[in-house]
Specification:
about 240 residues; alpha/beta; about 15% strand; binds 2-phosphoglycolic acid
Length: about 240
């Protein structure tokens, strides 16, 4: 099965750079296997050109007095297909907790958005051998009220915080082991036995070949290396082989 690539552009690129990006991407990788998550104000530009588009965050209510927020319903009606929820930068900097992340996930599923739920441990937690415990807590707190069939719309992105933007990366066998662990937790919690797991954290055009050998993951969440369309094109090319 071909793996999927999610490009998380975060709060990067100005309008000129986005125009260049789209021009290049249209030729090189306008493909359903790549989901582009630009800063939200640029979403319509990508939609207009037929890209698969995801938001980097969403609110949990459908509409109302929530200045500055975007609802899953608004996104879905616009043609957005996916949303990243619970990214570590939102947990750490915006102080989102599992409770709000659960609300966002449930509301997004209700509105037919594909959810990319991010989980991961800090370096300190890893060193204290708490990785499994942390991942289990993040999964249970957020997915405890979902019905198994709702999980057709969810993938879990395993992103160790110490690997994000650091150039460090776990060994393939460790990613494989953790992906199995995540699948087991979801099965035990919900009875759903087909949850897809992505890996994210310092994925780039050089390490993608090796990472692609991991059998039990379904794709990659790419931050820094997705900002240059030439680099992400190389990643997509490798993943599609
Ligand atoms: P990175 O970011 O690829 O720059 O490590 C990944 C992410 O934050 O999703």
């Amino acid at each position: 099965m071909n793996k999927v690539v999610v490009a998380n552009l975060k709060m990067n690129l100005n309008i000129e750079e986005i125009s260049e990006y789209i021009k290049f991407a249209e030729k090189e990788f306008n493909d359903k296997k790549i989901i582009i998550c630009p800063t939200s104000i640029y979403v319509p530009y990508f939609l207009k050109k037929g890209f698969s588009v995801g938001l980097q965050n969403v609110f949990h209510e459908d509409k109302g007095e929530f200045t500055g927020e975007v609802s899953p319903q608004q996104a879905s009606l616009l043609g957005v297909k996916y949303v990243i929820i619970g990214h570590s930068e939102r947990r750490r900097i915006i102080l989102e907790d599992d409770e709000i992340i659960e609300k966002k996930v449930l509301s997004s599923i209700k509105n037919n958005l594909g959810v990319i739920l991010c989980i991961g441990e800090t370096l300190e937690e890893k060193n204290m051998l708490k990785t499994n415990r942390v991942l289990k807590r993040q999964i249970v707190n957020v997915l405890k009220h979902v019905e198994p069939e709702m999980l057709n719309n969810v993938v879990i992105a395993y992103e160790p915080l110490w690997a994000i933007g650091s150039g460090l990366i776990p060994e393939n066998k460790d990613i494989e082991g953790i992906a199995n662990y995540i699948k087991g937790i979801v099965l035990e919690l919900t009875g759903y036995n087909d949850i897809k797991v992505l890996y994210g954290g310092s994925v780039n055009e050089k390490n993608i070949k090796d990472l692609s050998k991991i059998k039990n993951i379904s794709g990659f969440l790419v931050g820094g290396a997705s900002l240059d369309p030439k680099r992400i094109a190389k990643i997509v090319e490798e993943v599609k082989k």
